[in-house]
Amino acid sequence: KLTRFCTPHPGPRRQRQKDNKAMGWNRKAWGPVVPRPAPADMWRVAMGSIVGMGLATALVWLAHAGTWDLPLRLFAPLGATAVLLFAVPTSPLAQPWSCVVGNTVSALWALFVLQWCPPQLAPALAVGGAIGCMLLTRSLHPPGGAMALLTVLNAKASLAAGWMLPFLPVGALTMALVLAAAPVIGGLGGL
Fold first, then answer.
1. Cα(92)–Cα(141) distance, integer angstroms
2. Which residue has the higher pLDDT, 31 or 78?
3. Residue of 55, 32, 77 lying closest to 180 (CA atoms)
4. DSSP code, position 113
């Protein structure tokens, strides 16, 4: 009966473990949750990304050498698109519709925001509205949010490019990346 009253106080370590368990914390949650891919898959993803981004880069530099003055910052979200296309090709966020329409609609919305909204609100309205537009068109694509943000942050060049910006550079470059991904994912990748 004395042991009932003499149980030792849980030490600080045991208390921390209990608190962490109660809050749902787990040490394993802070480690990688994605399984290690096979070496062939790593090679396919890396090479596919190099080819796809190389094609998009060539198109940017060809366009930049011509009369088409492309804001180069808008090229950055294509890197995130490449990650989705090549590393997780079965994700709904990496499907051709989501990639092309998501980036295009986001850039289009951002131009609308630049035309009609005060510059202080432009970043928030551009990203929030782009998410809404992508949900409306069923083309949710996370790099689309970056596309909208970079469009309003580079307002001068984006407005100078005009209303063709979402279609010609953004849509065309995203489509080039998707088309470069198709043989790697479908034909060579075997997914």
1. 9
2. 78
3. 55
4. H
**Contact in structure between 75 and 53 (CB atoms under 8 Å):** no
Q: How far apart are CA 162 and CA 78, in angstroms?
A: 20
- Cβ neighbours of residue 99 closer than 8 Å, sequence gap 6 or more: 81, 84, 85, 141, 143, 174, 177, 178
The pLDDT of residue 2 is 45
User: Mean pLDDT across the chain, nearest whole number?
Assistant: 81
Indicate the range of 41-45, 57-61, 160-164 predicted with least confidence. 57-61
Give the type of residue at 35.
P
Answer whether 85's CB lies under 8 Å from 183's CB.
no
Name, in order, each residue with C-beta under 8 angstroms of 104's C-beta and a sequence gap of 6 or more. 166, 167, 170, 171, 174
Q: What percent of the chain has pLDDT over 90?
A: 39
**Interatomic CA distance for residues 181 and 191, integer angstroms:** 12
**H or E stretch at 53:** helix 39-65
64 exposed, middle or buried (CB, 10 Å; 0-12, 13-18, 19+)? Answer: middle
Its pTM surpasses 0.85: no
